[in-house]
Amino acid sequence: MTTEYNEFGQLTIRGHEVQSLVKDYGTPLIIYDEDHLVSMMDKYHSVFKHHQVPYSISYASKAFSSIQMIKLLKSRNMELDVVSIGELYTALQAGFPAQDIHFHGNNKTPYEIDYALKNGVRFFIIDALDEISLIDGLAEDLEEDDAVNVLIRINPSVEVNTHEYISTGQEDSKFGLSLSNGAAKKAIDLIKRSQHLNFKGIHYHLGSQLADSQPFINAISNVFAWLDQENIDIDILNMGGGYGVKYTEDDVRFPIETGFDDILNHLKKVLKQSNRNMPHLMIEPGRSITAEAAITVYEVGTIKDIPGVSKYISIDGGMSDHIRTPLYGADYEVIPVELNEDSTSLPSHVVGKLCESGDVIGKNKMLPEDIKRGDLLAVKTTGAYHYSMASNYNQMQKPAVIFVSDNGVRQVIKRQSLEQLIENDIR
Ligand code: LLP
Questions:
Q1: 419 is in an annotated binding site
Q2: Range of 229's domain?
Q3: What is the per-residue pLDDT for 156?
Q4: Which residues bind pyridoxal 5'-phosphate (predicted)?
Q5: Residue 344 lies in a domain
Q6: Strand, helix or coil at 321?
């Protein structure tokens, strides 16, 4: 993302002064660099094109979804993962083609499955054994030759180094079918015996915020050893998402080009050993496309200085739009929107305005000593799992979202209104 201070000490994103964007759209404000989003989508395409393999990039819409985001994905030839009727509805409302949508989730309800089928979705990732008869039964009304393509989500038992809450590929998990206890093999047998389901291949998602290719390489070895042992052919291999981003200087960003060089070269080697053709490859990046594309801008309110102890800077948002720090202890960079070269910096705690001691955005952030009410602060790398995880706790309104680019500025989501907060309440 292109954030930099201009000659007047004003923070800019893609050349647009943050302060003037705030004048137009208020705070808290999530600002995406649209050109960055596009460049990330294009980067994934170019890696797979370079390797000349059949592929699709299926964006995990849980990271950030909105009508304009979905339209942008469509314009860049992306496919889409959804995990709920709500994500599906958003995609369909944006005009995203149903045939490019993949339905995920460890507990798809009959209602959701039926809705997806009726709206043309023909691609499901099976997460549990009982889902097979459920989807097969609901597909009964489809045209004879209109089979539903399915992958099974397996647990390749690969250790990953990430937060326990976002680690998913291990045996003891609510997600997926186990290779070792026979559930995955049983699922394939059931699918092959079903009326309307077409077994297409394997899916796994190892976890999120992974910094290197090693877990993906290990997964390929484990999965093909199992496929060989069970004598199973696949048309599609879906390696999931989880490619890490740089929240702070301490984080290692997953190296997309070299990382996929390693993964794809290993895959080619393994395929050769097992005498198989290259399957259609899928990946499901979410965070790596959106996280570093956005900042959230807040206005400073109360400042509480406890001499010799701590300084608390309160902002006009908090865990309602920034849950990742309270939930995962995630660390972020917090920077002033206006730079004053003469002022010294002090460690300060940046906290939200919600009634919860854990409503912390960042601890001991180096911020100007003379920071005052009305100043603006920007939290970087807030493009993934921020708006999409926002809540109305304390009846906080969800923030506005804008896209900026070399071509200009456009609003993509309006700030939630007070009226909307109670629109479903019976008066
Ligand atoms: N595919 C599947 C099946 C997934 O479960 C996920 C994320 C992804 C793809 C995308 O992963 P990504 O590339 O975005 O890391 N709320 C947490 C993240 C939960 C991720 C859940 N699944 C966070 O804020 O870190």
A1: no
A2: 104-285
A3: 87
A4: 242, 284-287, 385
A5: yes
A6: coil
Nearest Cα residue to 71 out of 84, 87, 90: 90
Do residues 198 and 253 both lie within one domain? Answer: yes
User: Ligand 1 centroid to 243 CA: how many Å?
Assistant: 9
Show the tokens assigned to 253: 């960003």
- In this predicted structure, the answer to whether residue 257 has a pLDDT above a threshold of 90 is yes
Both tokens assigned to 255: 């190296």
Do residues 281 and 311 both lie within one domain? no
The verdict on the CB of residue 259 being under 6 Å from ligand 1 is: no
User: Is 327 found in the same domain as 227?
Assistant: no
- Flag whether 242 is marked binding: yes
284 pocket-lining for ligand 1 (C-beta < 6 Å): yes
Q: pLDDT tens across 375-404, in order?
A: 999 999 999 999 999 999 999 999 999 999
Number of domains in the chain: 2
Q: 129 and 278: one domain?
A: yes
Q: Would you give the DSSP letter of residue 274?
A: T
**CB of 166 sitting under 6 A from ligand 1:** yes
Predicted pLDDT of residue 74: 98
Q: How far is the CA of 173 from the centre of ligand 1 (A)?
A: 14
pLDDT of residue 166 exceeding 60, the answer is no
CA neighbor of 196 nearest in space, from 307, 122, 302: 122
- C-alpha of residue 310 to centroid of ligand 1, in Å: 35
How many CB atoms within 10 Å of residue 150? 28
CA-to-CA distance for 357 and 355, rounded, in angstroms? 7
Does 54 belong to an annotated binding site? no
Same domain flag for 146 and 225: yes
Q: Annotation-wise, does 259 bind a ligand?
A: no
Question: Does 38 map to a domain?
Answer: no
Cβ of 330 closer than 6 Å to ligand 1, yes or no, is: no
- Return the percentage of the chain with pLDDT > 90, whole number: 92
Among 285, 306, 337, give the residue marking a domain's end. Answer: 285
- In sequence order, which ranges of 194-317 are alpha helices (DSSP H)? 214-230, 256-273, 287-290
How confident is the model at residue 340, as a pLDDT?
87
Residue where one domain finishes, among candidates 285, 304, 329: 285
CATH number for the domain spanning 362: value is: 2.40.37.10
Is 46 inside any structural domain?
no
Q: Residue 221 and residue 227: Cα distance in Å, rounded?
A: 10
Is the CB of 287 inside a 6 Å radius of any atom of ligand 1?
yes
Statement to judge: residues 186 and 327 lie in one domain: no
